[in-house]
Design a protein that fits this description.
Mean pLDDT: 96
Radius of gyration: 16 Å
Number of helices: 7
Helix content: over 70%
Low-confidence stretches: none
Order of helices and strands: HHHHHHH
Shape: globular
Distance between the termini: 25 Å
Largest sheet: none
Structural class: mainly alpha
Length: about 120
């Protein structure tokens, strides 16, 4: 259970910072958004979306829905990095690493998810 909370915590801390930075339109968030080919006007909406997805993920009753929402959002991030030709391991796959932390952390701390998605079949 604690391992799951720690894994989830790493992703949550990063995503919380990212959502807040986008919502507040910090210079770093503005620069990154423009470099990815998006207008600055999308920042607040992206920040709100990230914070809502995070809240849904953090509530135990809706955590699986939150992980599903994050999977979709992070899939868009992967597509964006591929579109602009960013490096594979440091940029394109970074959302995959975050999704792995979110899902593995949730799987370790949520017995209902382990029952639904077992790592091995019981004979």
């Amino acid at each position: 259970m604690w391992t799951g909370r720690i894994l989830s915590g790493f992703a949550v801390v990063f995503l919380l910072g990212d959502g807040v930075f986008k919502f507040l339109q910090t210079p770093e968030a503005v620069k990154g958004t423009v470099e990815l080919g998006y207008p600055v006007s999308v920042l607040v909406g992206l920040g709100i979306t990230e914070l809502i997805c995070l809240a849904v993920y953090l509530l135990p009753r809706t955590s699986v829905l939150g992980a599903i929402l994050w999977t979709g959002y992070l899939g868009g991030a992967i597509a964006t990095h591929v579109r602009v030709g960013n490096p594979l391991f440091s940029h394109v796959l970074f959302p995959v690493y975050l999704a792995a932390f979110l899902w593995l952390g949730l799987w370790l701390r949520e017995p209902r998810l382990r029952a639904l998605v077992p790592l091995r079949n019981k004979p």
